[in-house]
Amino acid sequence: MNLRKDLSEKVLIADGAMGTLLYSYGVDRSFEELNLSHPEDIVAIHKAYIGAGADIIQTNTYGANYIKLARYGLEDEVKRINQAAIRLAKEAARGTGTYIFGTIGGINGAVDARLPAAPLEEIKRSFREQLYCFLLDGVDAILLETYYDLDELKTVLKILRETTDLPVVANVSMHESGILQNGKKLPDALEELIALGADVVGINCRLGPYHMARALETVPLYDKAYLAVYPNASLPEVQEGKVIYQSDTDYFEHYGEVFRQEGARIIGGCCGTTPDHIRALRKGLESTKPVLEKEVRPILELVPEEVEDEESGERLLDKVKERLTILVELDPPRTFDTSKFFEGAKALDEAGVDAITISDNSLATPRISNMALASILKHEYGIKPLIHLTTRDHNLVGMHSHVMGFHKLGLHDVLAITGDPTKVGDFPGASSVFDLRSVELVQLIKKFNDGISYTGKSLKEKARFHVGAAFNPNVLNLEKAVRLIERKVEYGADYIITQPIYDVNKAVLLKEALQKANIDVPLFIGVMPLLSSRNAEFLHNEVPGIRLTDEVRERMREAEEHGHANEEGMAIARELVDAICEHFQGIYIITPFLRYDLSIELAKYVQNKQQLQIASK
């Protein structure tokens, strides 16, 4: 048996899905663990695919790496699970001449957006551990499949090529036909993989035969590598809580020959496919002779256009780089009565604040849509809003739609935040979505500035978002916490907005920590006037992310006893502003209980400092 020779002479049929087939049988746990607990079932599936005409079967190891097995508490079983998978595949293929591919699946990407992205160094270690098993026990080739993240695939492919000369099949996955998640065109991505030493390059998962064939129409035949295609059976649907793939196998029969004509040398199946689909693919082939020439369909490029800037005046980000800049937060109302909200916003605008920030259901309490209020502020009052967006309340579909809406409404200043957990709000039993982390939301929004959607598809226009990220400085180890700012800046954050501080020394410590980390993005430091001792105690003891010093709490207690708690609260706020202005140019005033009169008073205090600074120069 010589895989490279066979690929040069004929089209090979590969097997179909393992995981979704097991799932259809009622298995809903680690499919790879079945290599140990139910080996006879895995052997039976391999034999079924061989019986259906597969020239190639892949080991049941798609998720048999440390990172994915850890989700099931099986991280210490990597070696046993992979070795068992190889042994079972060999048992099934014995005497048949079937090739065995050792499968290593992608880790990051869109398989489950709720799972945090793994650091690249961790992926490298996990990959090497799994690869070692295949090299130790012997397979005919390595199959890298379901990689949405091209950089991840390129990273592991480099490791593989430095380690072995086994044949390598490298498959990318797409959300949109012919376009990768990062916006790169499929032919360009495949050329990069060939340059790194892949023997076969191709596509698998997510899309069915039609869109896979359309994607291959744009791909030429390469001199140094062959093509592979592994389509899904169909788009999935949910019936009675179970994911179902429905596809007529006769439909697959037609595409066997279509894929051959597009130059594929390996044709198999991915999610939802069964031995019947593989049997249909083989039956559909008019010949196993590979095509040596094909017409390539030009890629219709939808180049995103620059949108003319209709916004007058300086952008917020430009202001804070040059001078003291004031944000004021107003919480949206919990009722339909918006009169005080707009009254306050208008008064603040007349007082000269630079932008009104509008929270997104703060403390997980339902309020009027901040998108609606921001749109009214901008278009009816001419007031610049900065709109908050939580990952808590919006799944990936809704988030994408929301950000597109922001662009069309001209709401281009966004604060990307996680959001308070639902259990602290009015509906403690409500779901928290968290399809993305806040850093990934920053990244998603900034992709819109390139005119690219989350899936890599052209949006035909480039947005103009400036994205802020949140930070809590009220922690014990500030230097360690500043690493989070580093990461958010790496993901594209243009500026940082902090929780309110109540310690004048915090501004100094934060500045020193930022300088040590070489972080120079603008910061807006939070200040929230205290109204009473009870208000101070509530914030300190019950509101996540806010801590008051003992001195501030004692001052508020004494002030309340003497009947001037409001005045003391404002005095503390002014002291904090003084400390902040020595080191930062951004002030973020959080209005307590829509007491916008206090925010105006504090804003005027900041403006007076600004005038004094200008006069002193």
Task: Explain this structure.
With 617 residues, this protein is of the alpha/beta class. It has 2 domains: 3-284, Homocysteine-binding-like domain (TIM Barrel, Alpha-Beta Barrel), CATH 3.20.20.330; 323-528 and 585-599, TIM Barrel. Helices cover 43% and strands 15% of the residues. It is built from 23 helices and 20 strands. The strands form 4 sheets. It has an 8-stranded parallel beta sheet. It has an 8-stranded parallel beta barrel with strand order 12-13-14-15-17-18-19-20, surrounded by 7 helices. Helix 4 (39-51) packs across helix 6 and helix 10 (209-216) packs parallel to helix 11. It starts with a helix and ends with a helix. The model has no long low-confidence stretch (mean pLDDT 92). This is Lin1786 protein. Its cofactor is Zn(2+); FAD. Zn(2+) binds at residues 205, 270-271. GO terms for molecular function: metal ion binding; methylenetetrahydrofolate reductase [NAD(P)H] activity; methyltransferase activity. Pfam families: MTHFR, S-methyl_trans.
